[in-house]
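Q: Two folds, back to back.
A: First:
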Amino acid sequence: MKGLVAVIVTTAARGYTPSGYQGAPTGELRTLTGLRIVAALWVVGFHFHFTALPGVAAVNRVLGPLVTQGALGVDLFFVISGFVIAHTHLDRLGPALRPAATARFVWARLCRMWPLYLLVVHVFGLWLVAKLVWGHDGAVAFQAVQPVVSVREWLRQLAGVQMWDHAYLDGASWVGPTWSLSAEWLAYLVFPVAAVGFHRLRRLPAWVLGGAAMALMTPIAQAYLTTGSPYYPYSWLVRVACGFAAGVLVCLAVRRMRADVRGVASSVAATLPAVIGLGLMLGERLGPGRGGAVIVLFPLLVGALALTDRGPAMILARPWAVYGGRISYALYLVHIPMFEVFWTALQHVRALGPHTLLAHLVGLAVLVATIGVAAVAYRGVEEPARRRLLAVHRPARHVLPAGMRAAARLEMRPAGGRGPRRAPRHALTRHPVFAGQHRPAHWVA
């Protein structure tokens, strides 16, 4: 594996891109969008494997850590988020800490996260209140530590700060997986300050940046190797800080790569999923959870996929995968509320006995339905609300006087006044390192 890293990073040339363009592109990296649905489905499978049905237990025995270590999908999300945030915002935020740019960034992130989050928290909050009122057998949620249902805690959930003074994940969030959203919200608020430092690292050699990105994942990998779990006081903070920062650094490393590394990157991107899967399986032989140490490979995987448009990147960039990536945030939010309703039904509906065919069919239907519900939530709530909220602070389009418009039109004409218009000199140059993936789009995640 060290050889694979060396092959990539030693092809980098300091300050060089084939076009000579040093700025970062903007737009959607479709391969990484597609990777998001892989991470989301990994987390969904991990949570569903706790379902108390014999059929689910049988699947768990066959797939083993490929399912039971699905919590690693959250760490993969953190790395992807750091990469994409750096790709989209670092050049605007990095040169200096400016209040206006910081406010625009924070507002854009809030518009992206909060509308659907608030809806899911309120709907699921009503479910928790109903269980409190009409009986809950000592538990209102399927969590090891029961969440507190109170007005004060409701306000904390709304603000997304519920994790900030919690040492452990359990019981902090009404909707269990939203602990990571609270952690990522903290990362977003810190990023404008951290960006000033990251921006000054952008000219370091790619091998230094890439190596540092992988090194940042070692604290969590060490926890997996020694205890089989990354669960210790404030480990959530280590996970988001290291994963997010690793994503930023690997984005800077990718920018330093030459375009001719795409062939090698394709081979690495095709090899790593198998290496990660094998590492999970072999690690389990050392002890439960030890395979989680494969987390150190996540920055390398994200960087390799960002560099290529062949191999697995072709699959992840297909329309169905990209759409899956776009609804992945909604899927992450809605799946646990749906599972909790199903798990409650398993406890109280006699027809859904654990050994009945009906229980297994309903469970499969619920699992598949999470994707449909996520698509509806994305199309009906998340994306429309994001657009409307962003429009509130969108600056008005500047209209040039007639004389200046005429001059601009002449500037865009080739010599002699004939032929197609050429792009204005200030137009963004396409960054060749991201060939095949750069596309102007709304994607801001």
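A: Second:
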Amino acid sequence: MSGKSKTKGNPKTYHQPMGDNKPSSSLPSALDGLNSRRFDDNALRASVSSAVYANFHSCLQSGSALTKKDADAVAGAIHKWAMGHGAVNSAHWFSPVRMHGMAYKTVGFVDLDWGDEKTLKDFQCSFDGTMLFYAETDGSSFPNGGLRATHTAAAFNSWDRTSPPFVRNNTLYIPSAFISWRGHALDEKIPLLRAQEAITRRVSAC
């Protein structure tokens, strides 16, 4: 048997000697692209005018709604960014109380051209403020397992503006609250947001 040691498999190694904190040039970076598929506040600031950005944060603090013009500007920026990352759908992503995990409703970035006078209208690529901030889904199964008729069980998704949208595979996911038409919380997020708001009010009053 030869005194030379043999290395099985690929002799290339990424291990470094103990105490050597210098990064290896051959070490693959697992963090490349970190945060690149999340539309965070920096992405918003870079994508809209300073006035729209300021109005967004002002409404975020007050809880009021953006104007249609500003909402469409934010939606347009997110749409352009998402399509640049390969997204062709959007999905309001929420956590209903009856499920262990998340649920979502997926909608394509397409709509009919309602300004067209033809009876059979053309399709167009579309994503406006209404499509970003709101979505309607069936609330008949939440939270009690379907005791209400579907046509009387409207429930709504609303984008939680404190949670940035993100792209996964070919879909733009919009973190959302899930609420009944009477204002009842149907998810795990709304009670958390309401608790945070109550604590903030209490602390501000001290």
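Q: And?
A: Strands lie at 89-94, 103-108, 110-112, 123-125, 134-138, 154-159, 166-168, 171-180.
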